[in-house]
Amino acid sequence: MMPNAVAVGGLCTKPAKPLSQDLEDFVQSSGPHGVIVFSLGTYVTNSIPLEFFRLVTEALTRLPQKVVMQYPGQPPDFLVKLRDQIRTMPWIPQNDLLGHEKTVALVYQGGNNGLHEAVYHGIPLVILPVMADQHDIAVRAKDRGVGESLEIQTLVASELETVIRTVITNTSYTENMKRISAIFHDRPERPVQRAAYWIEHVIKYGGDYMRTSGSYGHLNVFQAYLIDVLVFILVVACTIALSFRYFTKVSLRFLLALSKSRSNKAKEQ
């Protein structure tokens, strides 16, 4: 990152607000098992077929936890019948739910904002990545031991149930996330305060003094996009490929000549 760039990740993070009374009563009714938050985001949720939600419901009903699920529009009959265990809402107060003491896991599509909210509140993850950076976030979450990921295209109910149960019951996921959350919070200022400070700072003084000779504004096209490096790599790759082709061709000629020579000698005998 260049000196004139300031990291302000986590702008959407904030303390949880109280839930509505109806939602609070539902969450509290989960008892010692707690609540799972399920959300695939507005864009993905609106494009997911009904059968996928049937599969997810099958997995969630095998777990002792209650579920708050984002579902667009009127929920189907199979979800309505399970209202006591799975509460569907067109929009869910995700940050407020993640900050609730009863929440034990977030099952979601791997969006960046959801990741920051989960880190802020220390909630482990089960990620079903669909597109863009979601796959990268899923890999990073698994690598850091704060969650697991599953391929949404090949998902089966038993697999989803097992992974969610593992993330909830294996305390290492929560412990790792709590540690990362503590690191996230251990800063002199919140991300929004940091962003506001630097915006005001640049308005006052400009940002030119933070630029270095290596900044993009001081580089030509070849330097900025490393075209010279790419050309060098391409030349080396082509040289290796041509050398391999040449030595393969020479070797084949030698083997054919040797085979022909032995064949002629055998005929003469």
UniProtKB/TrEMBL annotation:
Keywords: Glycosyltransferase, Membrane, Transferase, Transmembrane, Transmembrane helix
InterPro entries: UDP-glycosyltransferase (IPR050271), UDP_glucos_trans (IPR002213)
Entry GO MF terms: UDP-glycosyltransferase activity
UniProt cross-references to Pfam families, sorted A to Z: UDPGT
Source taxon at top rank: Eukaryota
Transmembrane annotation, as ranges: 222-244
Annotated family: Belongs to the UDP-glycosyltransferase family.
Protein name as it appears in the record: Putative UDP-glucuronosyltransferase 2C1-like
Annotated organism of origin: Stichopus japonicus
